[in-house]
Amino acid sequence: QITTLINHKDKPKRSDKTLQAIQRVGQAVNLAVGRFVTVGEAIANENHELKEEMSVACIEARRAGETIAQLTDVASLDHPESDSHITIFTDKTGVVKAARLLLSSVTKVLVLADRIVIKQIITSRNKVLATMEQLEKVSSFQEFVQIFSQFGNEMVEFAHLTGDRQNDLKDEKKKARMAASRAVLEKCTMMLLTASKTCLRHPDCESARINKDGVFHRMRLALEQVIEIVTDSRPNGENEVAPISIYSGIREFKNKVEGLRENLYFLSKENLSTMLEVILEHTEDFTDSAYTSHEHREHILELSKQAKMELEQLVSVWMQAQNQKTKDLMEDLEVAILKTCQCMNELKREVHSAATSLAADLLKYHTDHMVLKALKITGVEGNLEAVAEYTCKLSEQKEQLVEMCRLLRHVSGTEPLEITCIHAEDTFQVTGPQIISAAETLALHPSSKIAKENLEVFCEAWESQLSDMSLLLREINDVFEGRRGEKRVYLSLPRPGKHNANLKALKPVKLDTEEQAKIAKLGLELHLLTSDVDSETEKWEDQENEIVQHGQGMSSMAYSMYLFTRGEGLLKTTQDLFHQAEIFATEGTKLASALHALSDQVHNDDKPLLLLEAEKLISMCKQLQITAKASAQGKSATFTKVDACILKTRNVMTLLCQLLPLCCKLLRKNKAGNDCLKPAPPWKEDRIRTGTNARPPERRVDTFGIKSLENHVTNMTFLESK
């Protein structure tokens, strides 16, 4: 609004409409400032140490808002008596000064408010730490219940404050670190409850004490990291040294090499050689790993050797070009640059394949959680020898998963994903020994219900992290394939004039702002349905199933149509949208064919229902195709057609949400009588090549579990009252 005022054109003739518009903008600015300042003043009254600074900034902002309102009070300009009245037309510099003062004072208010938020988080953290110290020293269960109730309430407050802060962070790296720390606090709060209760029940048990101490230590580290992120500082003033990944090293190296096209003298050959040496040192993490296949190891070593040779050739031509800049030499330099970059791309592709195929194999192999199940059974039996045997197996599994996280970090592609890999590595490193100490405690006290519950909690944390790794692997593959971890959009995108000769005569039309506003609600419904469909497809064990494939394709197309309603995405014009609707309907018809094929496999009782749903889908898709192909002349008719296409797409997606769980249920029912349990072959001996686009079995939302925490607190309070 301020920009509108300052950039308005000074025209000698001013219509009443223009004058009224300027006055409305000025009044709107003043009202907005008034609301903003009211909040600032309320914050000042609650925080006495910053009250004076905040009050001054609020007064300045209010004064600037009022000045802008006065200078834009131009409705009465046509009357002679108002000739002496100073306005935006007679004193534009006054508006500029007022605007600068307003922006300056508003910024000051925001900075002061931010300081208060940081102080609130630090104060909340200190309260949590103080209560944690009390919990550590508690000796009776009754006292523990009372203090844990207080601790739970304090953690809920801390969760709300840090959640708001995480959403406000602009730095994606900090946001990822905050999410990781909050995830640790969420899981550890539940662990702290059972670990402390176990220690109270078995005070002389060393493994129970080790288990509890580990939880407290990890929570303190997570709390400290939250404060580091919030205050943007580290203890003792030391700088954080971020580990360098192969991807980031290759990206920087290629940028330097390609920069030689513009400037032959901006870096030395020693710099390039050093950068390549660092990258090749990191590839040793792959070649030295016991879990890298022989084939991948050989390819990485060959490409490393080739990269050195390509760089030598590049440096040779580069040095000649510095001395003699001939056309032939510059062409040779271009060839050397291309060959060097191509070699680095191949190396990048090879390490990605090595890391993701290892991760897919490991996640598939450990998906049955056999070691955890065995630990629970042998613990309840009090079989110390068997527990010792399975703890060794869990330690081996931990080493495999830690190595997997380290290799995935090298190929994660973005800093937030690198941080997620580091967090996953830490989780496996810490949770493994905690499961072992919990299992030992149970084996020593096999009849203890609380020791059994404690082991369950730690095993759930391990299983949860494995589930998260499936999602992380998918996101890493999305980045590698250029999807940047965002929702997939259908790749067969329409282009006006490409698919149909008749389209050349049509003028591409975009929705204007008013039309986007009208259709926003329908678009949002479509967006929610795509999330539901994605959630349903991820529950399927067989991600290669034809029904799942068609469902995912339709969800992706529906999502791109939703983006169109917002004026975003790859569908730029209404003609793009109509063609996308046709493809969507075709995909739906293919899905109906897959449903007919499925009906031949299911029991006779289930067949009529499935065929009925398939016919419904065919009918809806035909209606959508008719609507998408119908001609529409004029703006109003085109918008009506857009509205109808999205409405019918929404109806198909609603049916799809019902179909997917039904088909999944029928397949499981059909399979139930035929399946038998078979021992899985050792993953190292028989490595099964799985697609790197494996979908996670369950989608987890990375949020601090405030609801579950509040439920725990409620239960503890109820227990205290009893």
Please tally the helical runs, counting DSSP H or I stretches of 4 or more residues.
21
Cα distance, first to last residue? 60 Å
Sequence of secondary-structure elements: HHHHHHHHHHHHHHHHHHHHH
Ranges where pLDDT stays below 50 over 5 or more residues in a row are 78-83, 485-508, 675-707, 716-722
**Secondary structure tally: strands:** 0
Instruction: Identify the CATH class of the domain at 513-672.
Output: Mainly Alpha
Pairing-aware structural class of the strands and helices?
A: mainly alpha
Please report which band the strand proportion falls in: under 5%, 5-15%, 15-25%, 25-35%, 35-45% or over 45%: under 5%
In the CATH scheme, what's the topology name of the domain at 513-672? Four Helix Bundle (Hemerythrin (Met), subunit A)
Assembly status: single chain
Mean pLDDT across the residues is 82
- CATH architectural designation of the domain at 513-672: Up-down Bundle
Can you say what the CATH homologous superfamily of the domain at 513-672 is? Alpha-catenin/vinculin-like
The value of Rg in angstroms is 32 Å
Assign an overall shape.
globular
Largest sheet: none
Q: What share of the residues lie within helices?
A: over 70%
GO biological process, one term: cell adhesion
Keywords: Cytoplasm
InterPro entries: Alpha-catenin/vinculin-like_sf, CTNNAL1, Vinculin/catenin
Protein name: Alpha-catulin
